[in-house]
Write a structure and sequence with these properties.
This protein is α+β, with helices and mostly antiparallel strands and about 750 residues long. The protein has 17 helices and 36 strands. It has 4 domains: about 20-190, Topoisomerase II, domain 5, CATH 3.90.199.10; about 250-330, Gyrase A, domain 2, CATH 3.30.1360.40; about 360-485, Topoisomerase, domain 3, CATH 1.10.268.10; about 510-715, Neuraminidase, CATH 2.120.10. It holds the Pfam family DNA_gyraseA_C. It is an enzyme of class 5 (isomerase).
């Protein structure tokens, strides 16, 4: 006995095992089971095991399209009891999806009863609904009794189930698939079967055909709910070439004219996998939150046909602009991913491109053709052998009758007398007396001739690959004719459009334009007062607080806030709290920590420039467009050294820079020495040995430098003493310069 085994009194043994190794081994087994036996479809028939078992069980129950319906509970019971050892709810759910016309592009199950709807309502319980196979499901099963595919034992060993279906229909791409396994997933949208057959025929004709040639036949996904595919041809090509990508799908809509020049938008098709009732709820909620300012009302006037009515706020709104706002904010535009991760013929999961998927299906169909032909050939050989025995019996009828009547063991005598096989002798002995008439002999000779011709044809087929592919092309052409574009089921439902041109939506058009006065306190409380209140007006603040910044703006403006952490933030003026209260902390409107302070707050204008600087005297010029931050987290503009913070953000309104430090040294230099950047540390504007930046100003050099003393302004035109180059130390400012070292 090995040393690492510990025997137990009951006769068993314990082997020490590393927990990590044991967990890895067991989890890997679970992961592989999930990948290969549950979540990923087979590239050959496009089915997961539960779907394949459902179709096989229904086929066993003789639920063909021409047969009657059977209760779904009976079908689910058979599937669960014989083939699929999982819960009945999951089996029924899979069955329902195969029957839903809005979920499956080509339903494989025909349901009778309530199988749910596009609003997202569930199907009735399985005891109330009935089902049978569709013609497409019959095509998937065609030839399954003719040794077309391999079978394996079921989980309990009592039954046999097919490993894969013959799949005369390109089900994987036609119906698509979705699944999440362990560590991998698949997402394949549905496509048009007629286009898939056309692409497959092109691949048969030219096995070296590349993706561009295939896409001339197959233009993109075709969803059961219709809609409009808005994706660039380049993106579509890349997705199908690699097997990974995505498609944007929009609702189909039209402008419906009403009386007196008014109009409304009617949505007739919505994107795939979007529940209509949930969609309308989302639109209504966004209206309530005032996030759809161009929309006045939404109504659901659908019957069995989708009809969602959208009313604009007024007739001057452009329908395209209204719909663009809805596409951006609601699932009326959805993105569906493409991840063609499937199990190949060797049951190995991998991502395939369009050509490889079609090639795998064609190779499977070729194998099915060979196996069915060989099965038929074997059956013909057996039948011809029996017919040859019958013909020998007819030629020697009296002798055959004598042997049967007189011999105790007629079978071996017949075999030895007429050189018959065991099968022929058995057939002769089982022949009915009525078959001895002359007419029956003629029928046998006719059947023999017909079967001999078929045998010769099949032998030629099996002996020539070219003939096999020609036969396969005929079968695919027949499938295309039966389920293709010319049929009601097969006509394309999803329109293909180019990527839409960008519709510029000015959000300020949604806001009523009115003047406001923005008030920011020292402690960071912000509010907006109606109208342009004089800036020198006194305002009430919380105890210990006072005015920091007051400025005039309009509700359509955007405000730029520059903070000591070097970030810029954008605030919409219309979003500021109104009224006579204290407002709200600006830190709740933007991502500003308690350690950061506001350096500057101003009305953002396009085309302007600003000089930003840190307290270590480094800075640069930045355009106003580069200060805009789309998110509340802000935009890092000025990169700061440890221990330093942003100290200035002043408008560039001149050609000269004046800068003064806490060491009370003033330096004046040309603005052209300061670079324009989008972000970074910048360059040294003034050098400090023992001090930091106090204030900076950009002015017109010829006009002179001004600063405020009390209520009046002082002007200094002769700046020769303080002029120099950037990064200089500077000199003592003129007499009378403010002690707080500020220009304003």
């Amino acid at each position: 006995m090995p040393d690492d085994l510990t025997t137990l009194p009951e006769g068993g043994a314990v082997r020490p095992t590393n927990l990590s190794a044991a967990l890895s081994e067991r989890y890997l087994a679970y992961a592989m089971s999930t990948i290969t036996a549950r979540s990923l479809p087979d590239v050959r028939d496009g089915l997961k095991p539960v779907h394949r078992r459902l179709l096989w069980a229904m086929h066993q129950l003789r639920l063909d399209p021409a047969a009657g319906f059977k209760k779904c509970a009976r079908i689910v019971g058979d599937v669960m009891g014989k083939y699929h050892p999982h819960g009945d709810a999951s089996i029924y759910e899979a069955m329902v999806r195969l029957a839903q016309e809005f979920a499956a592009r080509y339903p494989l199950v025909e349901g009778q009863g309530n199988f749910g709807n596009i609003d997202g309502d569930n199907a009735a319980a399985m005891r109330y609904t009935e089902a049978r196979l569709t013609a497409i499901a019959s095509a998937m099963l065609e030839g399954i009794e003719e040794n077309a595919v391999d079978f394996r034992a079921t989980y309990d060993g009592e039954e046999q189930e097919p490993i894969v279906l013959p799949a005369a229909f390109p089900n994987l791409l036609a119906n698509g698939a979705n699944g999440i396994a362990v560590g991998m997933a698949t997402s394949i949208p549905p496509h048009n079967a007629g286009e898939l057959c056309a692409a497959a025929l092109a691949l048969i004709e030219n096995p070296k055909a590349e993706i561009d040639e295939l896409l001339r036949h197959m233009r993109g996904p075709d969803f059961p709910t219709g809609g409009v595919l808005v994706e660039s041809p380049e993106a579509i090509r890349e997705a199908y070439a690699t097997g990974r990508g995505g498609f944007r799908v929009r609702a189909r809509w039209e402008r419906e004219a009403l009386k007196n020049g008014t109009w409304q938008v009617v949505v007739t098709e919505i994107p795939y996998q979007v529940a209509k009732s949930r969609l309308i709820e989302q639109i209504a909620q966004l209206m309530e939150e005032k996030k759809l300012p161009l929309l006045a009302d939404v109504r659901d006037e659908s019957t069995d046909v989708v009809r969602i009515v959208l009313e604009p706020k007024n007739r001057t709104v452009e329908p395209a602009v209204l719909m663009e706002t809805l596409f951006r904010a609601t699932p009326l535009e959805s993105r569906l991913s493409l991840n063609m991760n499937v199990l190949d013929a060797s049951r190995t999961p991998r991502v395939m491109g369009l050509k490889e998927v079609l090639r795998s299906w064609l190779d499977h169909r070729h194998e099915v053709l060979v196996r069915r032909s060989q099965h038929r050939l074997d059956a013909i050989a057996r039948r011809l052998e029996i017919l040859d025995g019958y013909l020998i019996a007819y030629l020697n009828l009296d002798a055959v009758i004598r042997i049967i009547r007189e011999e105790d063991q007629p079978k071996p005598v017949l075999i030895s007398t007429f050189s018959l096989t065991d099968m022929q002798a058995e057939a002769i002995l089982n022949m009915r007396l009525r078959s001895l008439r002359k007419l029956e002999e003629m029928e046998i000779r006719k059947e023999h001739k017909k079967l001999s011709a078929e045998q010769k044809s099949l032998q030629a087929l099996l002996g020539s690959e070219k003939l096999r592919w020609r036969k396969l092309a005929e079968q695919i052409a027949a499938t295309r004719e039966k389920f293709g574009e010319e049929t009601e089921l097969g006509r394309r439902r999803t329109a293909i459009d180019t990527a839409p041109a960008a519709v510029v939506i000015d959000e300020r058009a949604f806001v009523e334009r009115e003047p406001v006065t923005v008030i920011l306190s020292e402690k960071g409380w912000i509010r907006a007062l109606k109208g342009h209140v004089p800036l020198e007006t006194e305002h009430k603040f919380k105890e210990g607080d006072r005015l920091r910044i007051a400025l005039h703006a309009e509700t359509t403006d955007r405000l730029c806030l520059f903070a000591t952490n070097g970030k810029s933030f954008t605030i919409k003026a219309e979003a500021l709290p109104r009224g006579r209260g204290d407002g709200q902390p600006v830190r709740l409107m933007v991502d500003l920590t308690n350690e950061d302070e506001v350096v500057e707050l101003f009305v953002w204008k396009e085309g302007r420039k600003y000089l930003v600087a840190a307290d270590d005297g480094r800075g640069f010029v930045i355009r106003s467009e580069d200060l805009v931050a789309e998110k509340r987290t802000g935009k890092q503009v000025l990169t700061l050294e440890a221990g330093h913070e942003a100290a200035a953000c002043v408008p560039v309104e001149g050609d000269t820079v004046a800068i003064i430090g806490t060491n009370r040294k003033l330096l004046v230099f040309p603005l052209e020495q300061v670079p324009e950047m989008t972000r970074g540390r910048g360059v040294a504007l003034q050098g400090y040995r023992d001090g930091r930046l106090s204030d900076v100003k950009v002015f017109q050099g010829t006009a002179g430098l001004t600063w405020r003393i009390g209520e009046r302004m002082r002007l200094e035109t002769d700046l020769t003493t303080w002029r120099g180059n950037r990064a200089g130390a500077g000199r003592q400012p003129p007499n009378g310069f403010p002690r707080n070292n500020r220009f304003e």
